[in-house]
Amino acid sequence: MKQLIVDCGATKTDWCVVEGNQTRNVRTPGFNVLQTPEDHLKTILDHAAGEIGSGVEDIHFYAAGLVGKCPVDLGRWFPGARIEYASDMLGAARAVCGHNKGIAAILGTGANTCEFDGIGIVWKVNCGGFILGDEGSGAVLGKLFITDYLKDYMPEELRNEFTTKFQLDYVTIVKNVYGGQAPARFLGGFAPYILSHYEDSEYVRRLVDGNFRGLFERTLRQYDKSLPVGVVGGFGFACKEILIRLGKAYNVEFSRFLCTPTEGLVEYHAL
Question: Which residues contact 198 (CB under 8 A, 6 or more apart)?
């Protein structure tokens, strides 16, 4: 059987073709099933279908923010396939929990969490986005750092290095955050730079640790503490040692860290 597992995000979409024990990955630009213009969407899907080829029998399509009926009919590109449409949160839960109970956390540019009973999402703490929540995300870390940068509230050496590296002025930053098309992505884009100074800057360690403590205290502590937490997302994966260390103070046990959900979803749908 030729199976297709799709992880659709705003930046990129990963299409994993599964045939027996063999997998093949195709990557295309990301898209939003509710907002991407039809002509651009058609271009992406035409390319994906051409790379994947015919004969797909099963499709599991996971997309950010997808609730209810999906406005995109993949059957136009993969006729005859059985298609399941689901949210990226359900995909993350299946990837890190499998068929077991657990807590799933998406930690990337944004943050999202849920409690999973082995079949579906039982309940979730609202994430709120990077303005109202998203503690533990790359965008919130970037927001904290940029706020301090604008207020000159960080070590002078670090501030000078950041200024030289990124060449950003006050107006450019404000325009990107308040008027840009992807403010969370803009702020989250500074996370790799910030993390590069985790070992040599006490200021950065406090900032990073504080961001994750917000995740533990305002979100994860509301879930059943007997359940393990699985993490999906590049930012969380990069910070797994920090999360494991900080989690001990909150009695949080981590079960799995995945950079992307694809590996776990291949395992899930093989059972």
Answer: 204, 205, 208, 242
Q: Which two tokens stand for residue 141?
A: 């870390």
Span 2-98+261-270 CATH architecture: 2-Layer Sandwich (3.30)
Task: Say which CATH class 107-258 falls into.
Answer: mainly alpha
Contact 189, 177 (CB under 8 A): no
Residue 115's nearest CA partner among 222, 236, 235 is 222
Query: Where do you find CATH 1.10.720.160 in the chain?
Result: 107-258
Q: Is the pTM of this model over 0.70?
A: yes
- Chain segment 33-70, per-residue pLDDT in tens: 776 778 888 899 999 999 998 888 999 999 877 777 88
State how beta strands 12-19 and 82-87 pair: unpaired
At CA 255, angle to CA 250 and CA 257, rounded to 5? 105
Question: Each residue of 9-29: pLDDT tens digit?
Answer: 767 789 999 988 888 999 988
Rounded-to-integer distance, Cα 17 and Cα 3, Å: 6
